[in-house]
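Feature request disguised as a bug: please show the residue count (121) next to chorismate mutase in the output. Example input:
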Amino acid sequence: MTVRGIRGATTVVRDNSEEVLTVTEALVKEMAQSNGIQPADIVSVILSTTQDIESAFPAKAVRSLEGWKYVPVMCAHEMNVPGGLPLCIRVLMHVNSDIPQEGIQHIYQNEALKLRPDLQK
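Example output, currently without the count:
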């Protein structure tokens, strides 16, 4: 078994606490489900938001998921790069997995589909 990274990203329409938590939960659930990951398989989750999101910590959505109480989760802000995708939440999930690197399903939702069209299957 190896530690693998699963990437994901999504966007919100506006910086609203409820929306931030809802889209984060949906993204993280799909990332785990698409890769057959259980909470016990997760080493850690790092979430970042663009600097225009400040209404809620996306980590709150992850910690509130059934069975995810002990998963280490941390939030940060993304670099503020001109032309970057606004209102974006990114996730890097480190997991113990037997899936080969090229078999990992990275999940991009909403406007974040533009970030990595090469990873969409």
